[in-house]
Amino acid sequence: MGMPLHTSNFILVTFPVFVWLLDLNPPETHKFAGHAVRPGLVGDPKSWLRRAYKGVGMPRPSDLTPGALWGLVAVFCLVPIALAASGADDLGSLANRGGIGLLELPTARMAPVGTVVGGVTITDGVYRHGFLAIQPWPWLATGIRRSRRVGGPDGWPDDADVDLRLRLSDETRWRPALALGLEGLASGRFGSEYLVASKRWFDLDFALGLGWGRLGEAGHFANPLSLLGGRYDRDRDPLASPGGPPRWFSGRDVAVFGGVEYHTALPGFSLKLEYTPDLMRADRQLDPALEPGLAINAGLAYRPWRWLDLGLGIERGRDLMARLALRPQAGDLTLLALPVEAPPPVHQPRPASERGRRRDFAEAGLNVRAVTMAPTTASAWLDLADGDDPAAPARPLGRAVRVLANQAPAGVEQLTVTLGRKGLDGPSVAVMRGDLERASHFRGSAEELWENAVVLPAGTVRAPADGSGGTAPTRWTGIVTPLLQQSPFEAAAGYVYRASLDAGIEAEPWRGLIFAGGVRINLSDNLDRVARVTPPASRPVRSDLWAYTADRLSTLDHLSVSWLASPSSDWHLRVSAGHFEEQYGGLGGEILYRPGAARWALGGDFNQVWKRPPEEPLRLDPTAGVATGHATLYYEMPDQASHAALRVGRFLGGDFGGSVEAAHLFSGGVRLSAYGAWAGGGWVRPNAAQTRFDYGLQLSLPLGRLAFLPEASRAEVASRTLMRDAGQRLTLPQPLYDVSDPISYGRLVGTWPEIVR
Do 562 and 734 touch, CB atoms closer than 8 A? Predict the structure, then answer.
């Protein structure tokens, strides 16, 4: 055990040394290893600190040899090591562009599932990065960012990018963690691909990787894929547009990169050292006077709280880097997100005869459309409401079983509840009454209930035709959605956003027949920025979105009717007509095959839609029609809380392509999702400010706990491309996979412990 290091003591010991080491305005430019080093790391506002140390007799960095200067860097790094004992920080710290890593370099580490990162990194005189990243799954990290060159020539273009990282294997005692990454998918200036390994040895976390593109510019080896010829054996233009998968892992050379992170005993505090092969070729083509500097970066990371990440470092021997990021986890947001629920029904002694029926269910906040009693079994058909937690369908199931037990005669031993939602049928779950009674008196558990439970496929247990208790009343659902859409990716227009408030209502007079309408109130936006710098398209898809908000306080967002049904076991169907979204309306249908216990599902949708003129929201333009649709493969992850979707089909611009989506649903209903789409052909002609690559991240937070809002209300924040014409998919009303997800077998099994709540 070593001596603990208090935060304030660390700051007092190291901060003056660090500021003195950087100094402020050396009188001249000098050379490090043959490269010109730009003087001046911190400006005059810190001159008071120089004056405070002037009398100490310390030399200035400009008076030191490179060896002496780097020796002081080593002393700075060794101070906290000498004072701090061995420690651990398994969450990992951030790199400059938002992902888990060292400084400029990635590692194979991942953040905890549900982590949301938003922040900014400023490297003095080089770049300013604004980033947003999420960790939807343990093996996938996604990030979007905007980078702006500071201190360069006028007219230097901004850079908007997407970064992905896939974990190929976990770390074991003898084997390192391995990850494959793609950076700069959108613009190309930071475009690179890499394979990186990370291995922990006590408090040292080592990373070693092989990079292509920007991470391969040092050219240590020939590209091993050059044996395949073609693009793999040609030089790679660092300023060329990304070009999609054909550009990946291309280029004549590759390079090795690596580094180490030391985790100190001070919780959340670590030191970093890395070697980068980035020679800044793209930047030097735009600014020939720019020198790459040293290939060594050093810095520190400190997280005083789990949700705050701070970083400081020296990069390329000359540039001061500072980073500030917020990184909450979705679990930190569920306090507000928990939906309003009626108190769970208290289990009562077995009654001599049946009683109550649907009225007792309604008092418990449950929408039951039918109840039947038999000598040994009791059954109920429960339709989940939009206000129920979609991440925990076992909770209303358990409440319905308890109400059913309170109603059933003494001789009934099996209680069956069939799940449904918006006309779709889910599985039927039969539990033993004795197991429920023991669990209610804390002598049993959810696991014991599962041992004797029987789960039957959807459609096996049909509701009686007469409803056995009367026709279910019309279901009315109010929905209020505060929505912020922001795009840091419009290179010519800068940051673009739209803030609005959607107020809608759904009515279900008969099971499966849904009328939906909503009004969008435009609160604020600057979409006209894009319109001013982007030439108008001959047949706009989304690029005319500004016209739907200009000088309009409110507009009709959607007005449609849909019919949903499950014609047979595992098959679901939807037919819709009306105004599907703010810009398009028409006719459409969808079919979904979702086998009961399978992780996968297949779906397809086809729609004939027309553009809704912005000045006449109730009319459809007969000259602006398009047929659009997609075939989709869904896959549910083993955690039963996340899924992926792979789509192939025709977009709204007549262009064909595909998209990949990933989503994770947390307890309480917090939802994180990411998507990327690539399209080609059609009448869409992207200009220099738009590409055929569309992408985005979204955070959705239920607001059911707020008493003044309807229980189904949600707040949504989306960081995505706005006003693009390529790769644009229609917003579908009542998408079948989303509607059926809360009543799926996987979601039920994954949340089974909630049945006793």
Answer: yes
